[in-house]
Amino acid sequence: MPTDNSGATAYPGRRHPFAALRRRAADLLGGPHRVRVVALLAAVLALNSADTGTVGAAAAQIEADLGINHAQLGLLATASSGVGALATVPLGVLADRVDRTRLLALTITLWAAAMTAGGLAPGYGWLLASRLLLGAAVAASGPVVVSLTGDLFPPADRASVLGWILTGEIVGAGVGLLVGGEVAALVSWRAAFLVLAAASVGLALAVWRLLPEPPRAAARPDPTAAGGGGSADRLREALSDRAVPPARDRVVTDDPNGWSLRRALAYLLTIPTNRLLIVASAVGYFFFAGLRTFVVVFAVRHFGVSQTALGALVPAIGVAALAGAVLAGRLTDRALAGGRLDVRIVVPAAGYSLAAVLFLPGVWVTSVATALPLIALGAAGLAAANPPLDAARLDIVPGRLWGRAESLRTMLRLVAEAAAPATFGWVADQLGGPAGRSSGTGLRNAFLVMLVPLLANGMLLLAARRTYPTDVATATASDRAGDGGPG
């Protein structure tokens, strides 16, 4: 029986319905192997985001069933993120030292157990305890995904690849809001949790069997790899051509795997650009965590639409966010190839600033027709910041420290995410009062207040333009010294 290149059976005059889509994805990402890897890593991020999105979508049902208020609902997300912040650092150490795909599969299995416990919770205390277990399990995903991305893809392609991988966060949030919300409305919020638990089991098996564990080739890209090495590492070559010197006192000449955790974290905090990028990421995710937790409750009460009608509008926002992430990644890499060396800093700064400016009228107006395009474009700006920001972090950190660097960033991000839902809920309760709770005025005012740090975030990030070239040169010298080459 004839087959096509993908292994699917081919029949004269008949096309597989997904063949063209597979070919297009392979062309964009550099081959079917890359498509599989990107899809699995995106699915890992999607699962985490879908869980939080489901909590937000089922907020009304959870509050009514368990008799809790906004602040207690926010505490569910806060508890998960808080425990994750504590667990992510030791898991980041493991990401630098053990088989990452096995670690990821194990933690996803723990996700499934935590989600099942949450779906069966008889009361608020049990549900809160299940969120603590979930937070500990989720903590491995950030360091492992970033570390694998760094070793599987060459530097010149990372923003584009991360643009696709990070769509998992957006798709997951959308699935949580839409599917989780519909299941919660039609069946129960418990059923929504159990659906996610079943999905977790399937993903754990897929990661175990299909995700490759690459060699830790962090020092220099393999010149034989597709798109890697040689002229592909345009950033580091350009800095070399411009004679940008490394900070010699920060060049790593020994093996960081022999370092204590304290020494590793202290070194990572001496990288000026890394400090700014960590803060920027934490502020961005703080706003996103509050938004996804309360967006359904806010939209239903502020715009006066039903949850079912809202489900028809959410895809427009999701598509805009997806487009923002993917296009930002691709355009950033193209601009880098064209010689714009600070583009991985400028694009996130513009994305955060644009998001704040667009969300302001989008949250204020009461007409859903007017608000929808503004909120959609604001979501695109918020999503556009992440791929180049993540690629920039890989640029400035020696490859042998990627897992611990991402665990530090994830820890502070999760602290911000832990604080966000409870903070948004508390501010909404304080600014809205009894009447504002039912009308959505309290949540509207909370969103408006939280736009101030988001706008300041974009301005702060521009300061990294001055330190970024030196930090990239320092990471390059450290990797070469670790390879035995000249520092």
Short description:
The chain is mainly alpha-helical and 487 residues long. Helices cover 77% and strands 0% of the residues.
Descriptive account of the structure:
- The chain has 487 residues and is mainly alpha-helical.
- It has one domain: Growth Hormone, Chain: A (Up-down Bundle), CATH 1.20.1250.20.
- It has 20 helices and no strands.
- Helix 5 packs antiparallel against helix 6 and helix 13 runs antiparallel to helix 17.
- The chain is globular and about 60 Å long.
- The protein starts with 18 loop residues before the first helix and ends in a 5-residue tail after the last helix.
- The relative contact order is 0.15.
